[in-house]
């Protein structure tokens, strides 16, 4: 961390890269760091490579209007910072800066991160990357945090911890500190986690109505699965289907939950979750995917029933 703070203190031109298909942790980390560096006089661009537009849900994050398209980011900078990306391919076209910037810094909390920067601050015990950014800003004496920075840090914290359902004491202490900075924590949770278009109700009705319980799978611990066909989305933003697994995984009769998301003709993105025993990262890896022991995913091609049969066989 001290090497990171030393580089940040000297940065004159910086590019901050969030990961592709950004979430509130990567955006909150990037925007908080950008606001802080700008307050010190550093020229900063924040960007992410895919998709081409910021999902509407993140428009509430302070500074989100300044996020740039990769094509508008300066080509030559002295400092490149990757936030919350487990590997350089999670940066899309922005990965090129790792080789061309004078200094590249990686800040992340994924256990699988091999450290692809010149200087890497990786702590897999941190519950979000915004926890790491908060620690860095504290090193500069930046506490209490300005409200916009506190808002961004809290956004990553509340979402990556599942509203503080899976996290340690540091996350709770930081939450209290951020709320003390004057943020509206209730509104942040409501905007990021509890606000959906009306059409989601119809999508959920179709998708959950077709859910299946296979009690004999995973050595008799049970698999619950649901499928989101492209037609079920009916114009909803694609990120609305990411919330389906969080409903399905609560099924008492199943240790493992799976959601098949149709991404094209006979193409599927499969999300896996487990509760206590099954290592779904191992299962996903068998299909070329990856993730954490309790949360993982992979891509598959072929007929829906064939994909399910393969998954059932791998789960045992
Ligand atoms: Mn994260």
Automatic annotation (TrEMBL):
Which InterPro entries did the record assign?
Answer: DDH_dom (IPR001667), DHH_sf (IPR038763), DHHA1_dom (IPR003156), Oligoribo/pAp-PDE_c-di-AMP_PDE (IPR051319)
Which residues lie in coiled coils? none
* Residues in DHHA1 domain copies: 238-312
Classification via Gene3D superfamilies: 3.10.310.30, inorganic pyrophosphatase (n-terminal core) (3.90.1640.10)
Q: Name one GO molecular function term.
A: nucleic acid binding
Its domain of life? Bacteria
The record's SUPFAM superfamilies line, in alphabetical order, gives: DHH phosphoesterases (SSF64182)
Q: Where does the record place the DDH domain?
A: 15-156
Q: Which PANTHER family match?
A: BIFUNCTIONAL OLIGORIBONUCLEASE AND PAP PHOSPHATASE NRNA (PTHR47618:SF1)
Official protein name in the record: DHH family phosphoesterase
Q: Which organism is it from?
A: Lolliginicoccus lacisalsi
